[in-house]
Design a protein that fits this description.
The structure is a single chain. By secondary structure, the protein is mainly β. A hairpin with a 6-residue loop joins strand 5 and strand 6.
Length: about 120
Amino acid sequence: MRAGDLRRRITLQRRLVTRDTFGQQQTSWIDWLAAVPADIQPLTGRELLAAQAVNSETTHEITVRYHPRLANPVEVAGMRAVYAAGNGVVRFFNLLAAMNVDERNRQIVIKASEGLHNQ
């Protein structure tokens, strides 16, 4: 992997579920790893019709350097990546699966989706 390929910076966030004073669940996101060098490549796109509205979803492959905190694919699957694309555009990626390429602890490839459940 060449360093020039990892030219984007993403923040990995974990979901934090708390209860408010009325006992209702509140979901918030906390930064888990910040300024992670990454490569983001789109894979597929599709449109879905739900509740009389057209929604689109795009799947991506995010490549990052190996980090021990990303070694557990089950833990990564509940996270999201935030990418500030510039001009005030912020993109949210729901992380689906993390794979340690060839189990060599050099790079992690993360499958992610964008578009349906951004919050």
